[in-house]
Amino acid sequence: MSTVLDNPPTISKPAVAAEAIRAQTDGFHLVIDALKLNGIDTIFGLPGIPITDLTRLAQAEGMRVISFRHEQNAGNAAAAAGFLTQKPGICLTVSAPGFLNGLTALANATVNCFPMILISGSSEREIVDLQQGDYEEMDQLNAAKPFCKAAFRILHAQDIGIGIARAIRTALSGRPGGVYLDLPAKLFSQTMDAVAGRESLIKVIDPAPRQLPAPDTVQRALQVLEGAKRPLILLGKGAAYAQADDEIRALVEKTGIPYLPMSMAKGLLPDTHEQSAAAARSYVLAEADVVLLVGARLNWLLSHGKGKTWGGPDAQKLAKKFIQIDISPTEIDSNVPIAAPLIGDIGSCVSALLAGIGSGWKKPPAEWTGAIAERKDKNLSKMAAMLTQDVSPMNFHGALGAIRDVVRQRPDAIVVNEGANTLDFARSIVDMYEPRKRLDCGTWGIMGIGMGFAVAAAVTTGKPVIAIEGDSAFGFSGMEVETICRYDLPVCVVIFNNNGVYKGTDANPTGGKDPAPTVFVKNSRYDLLMEAFGGKGVVATTPDELKRALQEAVASGRPTLINAVIDETAGTESGRITSLNPQKAAINK
Predict the structure, then answer these.
(1) The sheet that has 290-294: what strands, in order across it?
(2) In the chain, how many H helices and how many E strands?
């Protein structure tokens, strides 16, 4: 327990016996001690009023404090850390504008089900409530509430232990998500007896207890699965977060059912596994008659479980049924009827299914697995030819083919990926071999997660990180390359530079001087940005140059940025979600 002394002895006064000195602690130290007591050893944030001394003291007390250039990137780092570690990532910000910068990341963490706590300093309540115009005055607590699982404010030092314990338990229990913790400036300087302060802290016991599925629901799910002729297991990022890797692999292999991983579930089983149906995605989603969802939600990423993606009008004739494993009962039937809800934590639910399957489980019909294998072979052969294209400037396939080779050589590397075309192509081209080695835009599909996620991955794992970035996406967090250099992190940023958003070919329809809204400065030297802060910058114009530069970067562990020059005509509008981007209609004026 860190302490401060009330009236410490000085050389001008008689010495006072140590036992007579009343040891005290303050709000700063209580916050730090409460976090450390619960195994939290890293803070992502940005110093300033009123939390500057909190960052200094946290570092002095042995915590790792990663200071960013923008709070949103720090928040994204905290969220990614939560996903990777199953401990709430901590983002620390200043008041009002800093809080708002972190709020986007908090909302994204909640939508993605990543455990995170946004801790923000704030103005004094008595001034804020009367709207008297305090420095950075804002009612942050109520602003945060719609965007997180819960929001708490701590006003008294003796409540810091309770407040942090509640935040941790809320972030981790049930469906994980974001929590906001409001700390007014006056809280930090409050003092109390050190012994009482120590006793006020709480070590959270079992913050995410197992939730066992009811036996009858397990039997129902097994009956539905056993009756399937064309079964499919669909793995979501919740399955990756659960860290029930062995159980999930056993379920897939014991049943023989083909599986389809969502992007952040890639690597739970190697993408090269014979039961992977990723290369026949469209076919299996449309044709499967029973789908077991493990940590996946039927949201827009899965076309809400209906429509053309799932077989269109023919889906009714297929009598498609869903079995859904989810820790939240309210998720069930959110878009389509769920024939067999299985409510509980993923590890417990999968283990229960394994126990019920026994040794005599009948494997899927050869007609189904054979049809998938045929389409996989056809699509993979077609893809292989595209990945060997050696043109300059590069297209997406040639460049990603080079990265794919490096990731195969270094399966321990973590891939961070964002963009439009850069995300879409990388998701299907770059194979993953180990769990939780891929981080991307997630459920909201937002841009700007790149550098924050990359920093978190490097800090929490110590593994090499390859951040595959569209040039537009990189712009949201690009200044954090200084952070990467400052902390000497093993991050290699690969920017797919095609001179614009989607493409670099748009023109101003008026013929005026301003460029089109989607066009950037031609032939930008992003590599020089990394060199400005002491990292290594490389320009790559061919797949071979890109591959060699990436191999060297991963091997060295040195902060590196590869400016991969991509044909500006490559790519499509909005990537694979063009249908979500309304197009102008032809009208008569």
Answers:
(1) 259-261, 231-235, 290-294, 321-326, 340-343
(2) 23, 20
- Residue 129's contacts (CB-CB under 8 Å, 6 or more residues apart) are 139
Rounded-to-integer distance, Cα 284 and Cα 588, Å: 44
The residue assigned the tokens 């913790």 is: 181
Question: pTM for this structure?
Answer: 0.93
What is the SS3 assignment for 529? helix
Distance CA(295)–CA(345), nearest Å, equals: 9
Residue 566, beta-bridge partner list? 394
Amino acid at 566: I
DSSP symbols for 503-525: -S----TT--SSPPTTB--TT--
Encode pLDDT of 405-447 as tens digits.
999 999 999 999 999 999 999 999 999 999 999 999 999 989 9
Yes or no: say if 578 and 511 are a contact pair by the CB < 8 Å rule: no
Tell me if 30 sits within 8 A of 61, measured CB to CB.
no
Q: Which of 111, 66, 93 minimizes the C-alpha distance to 488?
A: 66
Alpha carbon distances (Å) from 61 to 86, 136, 172, 338, 589: 23, 29, 25, 50, 69
* SS3 (DSSP) at 497: strand
484, containing H or E segment:
helix 481-486
